[in-house]
């Protein structure tokens, strides 16, 4: 059974992904296409109200595709 909400670190990561997407003025569908996944898969992970989170492989892919460090998705202090 999956959790119904994200942990603080999962929320942080989701927000950072959304920040990149909105900065580039991409829809969820466009962003998902660039990282080679479905819009539904992406939307579930970006949505702060689901317990489904981005995994490290997804974060690494996003970092590669959008030319940011994976560290961008990690807070400076523990949450």
Name the helix and strand elements from N-terminus to C-terminus, one letter apiece.
HHHH
**Terminal Cα separation, in Å?**
24 Å
Number of helices: 4
Stretches where pLDDT is under 50 for at least 5 consecutive residues are: none
- Which oligomerization state do the chains in this entry correspond to? single chain
Number of beta strands: 0
Beta-strand residue fraction: under 5%
Structural class: mainly alpha
What shape does the CA trace take?
globular
Give me the Rg, rounded: 12 Å
Work out the helicity level. 40-55%
- Mean pLDDT metric: 95
The largest β sheet comes out as: none
Description:
- The protein has a domain at 8-61.
- The model has no long low-confidence stretch (mean pLDDT 95).
- It has helices at 8-23, 28-34, 39-46, 56-65.
- The N and C termini lie far apart (24 Å).
- The protein is globular.
- 52% of the residues lie in helices and 0% in strands.
- With 79 residues, the protein is mainly alpha-helical.
- It is built from 4 helices and no strands.
């Amino acid at each position: 059974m999956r959790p119904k909400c994200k942990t603080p670190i999962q929320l942080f990561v989701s927000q950072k992904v959304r920040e990149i997407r909105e900065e580039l003025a991409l829809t969820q569908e466009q962003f998902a296409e660039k990282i080679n996944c479905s819009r539904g898969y992406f939307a579930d992970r970006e949505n702060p109200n689901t317990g489904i989170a981005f995994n490290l492989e997804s974060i690494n892919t996003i970092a590669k595709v959008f030319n940011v460090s994976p560290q961008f998705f990690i807070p400076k202090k523990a949450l």
